[in-house]
Amino acid sequence: MNFNKIIILFLLQKNRVNKQGNCPIRCRITHNQDRKEFSIGLFINPKHWHSKLQKAKPPNDENDFINNELSLIKNKINQAFLFLQVQENEFTVDDVYAQYIGKPITRRVGIISHYSDFLEKYKKLIGIEIKQVTWNKFNYILNDLNDFLQWKYKQKDFYLKDLDMEFIIEFEYYLKVNKQQKQITINKALQRFKKVVKTSVEAKIISTFPFNEHKPKSVKNQIVYLTVEELAKLEQHQFFQIRLQQVADMFIFCCYTGLAYNEMAHIQLKHIVKGFDGNDWIKMVREKTQREISIPILPKSAKIIEKYQDVDSPYIFAKISNQKFNSYLKEIATIVGINKNLTHHIARKTFATTVLLYNDVPMEIVSELLGHSKITITQEHYGKVVQKKVSEHILKLADKLDKK
Known about the structure:
The chain has 404 residues and is mainly α. It has helices at residues 61-85, 93-101, 111-123, 132-152, 165-177, 183-202, 228-236, 242-255, 261-266, 299-308, 322-336, 344-356, 363-370, 375-402, and strands at 6-12, 23-31, 34-44, 49-50, 55-56, 272-274, 280-285, 292-296. It has 3 domains: 6-101, no CATH class; 111-202; 228-399, hpI Integrase, Chain A, CATH 1.10.443. Helices cover 50% and strands 11% of the residues. α4 (132-152) packs across α6.
């Protein structure tokens, strides 16, 4: 129970005297040193008001009516205060006023408290709707929020109802400066935080969505991929170390299939099926989007499958961690002479650009083969590649026309 007292005071607004010489009576509620002042719709001649006794004088019909109304208002406010006292939640003077006028009270729930409840429920969806890695990413944001509240406000929680654009901007600044995060990482963090806050609106904990005016800062990422020449250089090189040759082949395989690391690591012979056209296709569910993908097996990827398929193992490729895979790729890039920070993801980019777009495969098909949930994602990432391809065609056309 909240044992803090409440003070109810009636006062005159003497700067607003009407033609009859009367001025408004206002009510001031004080709770925890916070005040709420409001008009009560009553007027009185200042000469008839006894400030110390908090009543109208002398006794007459008009003053008796005012005194009765003041008594009713005071009793109603005290009842509102008593009602809130027996509740388990903390409340403010604004909540007392809201209860007095019959207005719904915004629940005073903290960001950390609500976020923790969200994570607890979200965890039960692992293996049903989400992956463990997805839950982990949301949990990282909670850790960052805890650190931010200690840094900025020196407190363990912050009321959701007080969450505003200033808080969001300061949190974004904290992630950039204190956590040294890149803008693309910050955008993802705010996107997840936004999702959690939205659930508080749906649960009617808060009435307005503080992210309505927030726009993520745009990030211009340069697509890194292997050119035709670089890909050919990698394909033609024979490595003396078996581990490097295996990683190079796996990388090349992904350059011609667009598979992500986890998909490459888990691909089995059962995922290779005859398509409607009589050719071999890879059919599997993409882990990130849970969408089924169908990818035609090109001749070069077919040769690699033939080279590595093992009757004693259901998997086509030997197990290797993503960290080691990328570490070996750096060795490979140095040996072959590719001046790029080679990672597995570059293989997927190479598939989309060098293998598909530069060979005039339409954007819609590229989006489908990459397993993107929306074509806009593909356009956002690879739009400039298409522009470059158009530019090359125009230059060739200009050169051709110039020779006529």
